[in-house]
Design a protein that fits this description.
alpha+beta; 8-stranded antiparallel beta sheet
């Protein structure tokens, strides 16, 4: 009887480990190239390219003043990897804003003409409520804008939202909203990046910007947690058996 129980314990432990690895989040937790959570109350390392007094981080997140349309950029050379950030739109004044997560300045003088992949956050309406329409674009300074994909469902306007964009070396983009995949499309035009750019003009808020150069899961961390969980289960079962 005890041998059968031991086999059951081992089987359950293996099954638990496989389930843990299978259902663990695929978002990368390693290879961070740069990040900013604005907890220091400033945005050192960023460059404002319009309306120099329009941005602040005194509340430990980045925010643009109402009516002060402009953008702020951070050096970023990642063209394949993961870009994630939190945002909050001001419900009373929301109109639209954009995030250029892969961007190259083509003027060689200053931002104002560039090629980029960008996410558009536009005002949207349903019969019941107002929301945010999110779409993925490629912009070429010479030829104009191409919309690559658009999320089918509107994002609620209220509260903070987590956005994550991944791009493989084959050019496959995946866009996640609060952990759920909402867009996926392939585009291979750009192979390099110089900047990450945040835009706004109506009290938009940004926080927890993280840029990584990979999109795979941190299997070592996942496996370590899973093995630890298996060991704990085994110890508990052994204690119960002895009793």
């Amino acid at each position: 009887m005890r041998e059968r129980l031991d086999y059951k314990i081992v089987g359950l432990a293996i099954l638990f480990l496989l389930c843990w690895m299978g259902f663990s989040p695929l978002a990368s937790r390693g290879a961070v190239v740069w990040s900013d959570d604005f907890n220091d109350g400033d945005f050192d390392g960023w460059t404002i390219y319009e309306n120099a007094s329009s941005w602040s981080a005194t509340n430990k997140y980045l925010q643009i003043d109402q009516g002060s349309a402009g953008g702020i950029s951070h050096p970023s050379t990642v063209a394949y990897g993961t870009w994630s950030f939190d945002y909050k739109a001001h419900e009373d004044t929301f109109d639209g804003f954009a995030v250029d997560f892969i961007s190259n300045d083509v003027n060689e003088v200053g931002i104002g003409g560039w090629n980029c992949y960008w996410l558009a956050f536009a005002q949207a309406y349903t019969q019941e409520t107002r929301g945010v329409a999110l779409s993925l674009h490629y912009y070429n300074y010479s030829t104009g804008d191409i919309r690559i994909d658009r999320a089918e469902d509107y994002i609620p306007l209220a509260g903070w939202h987590h956005i994550e964009v991944t791009r493989t070396t084959a050019g496959l983009f995946s866009v996640y909203h609060n952990g759920s995949l909402i867009m996926q499309a392939e585009h291979t035009e750009m192979e390099t990046s110089e900047l990450f750019v945040l835009n706004g003009d109506h009290l938009e808020m940004y926080d927890n910007v993280v840029v990584r150069d990979d999109i795979g899961p941190d299997w070592l961390l996942i496996a370590a947690i899973g093995v630890s969980a298996v060991v704990i289960i085994a110890v508990v079962v052994i204690i119960l058996k002895r009793r």
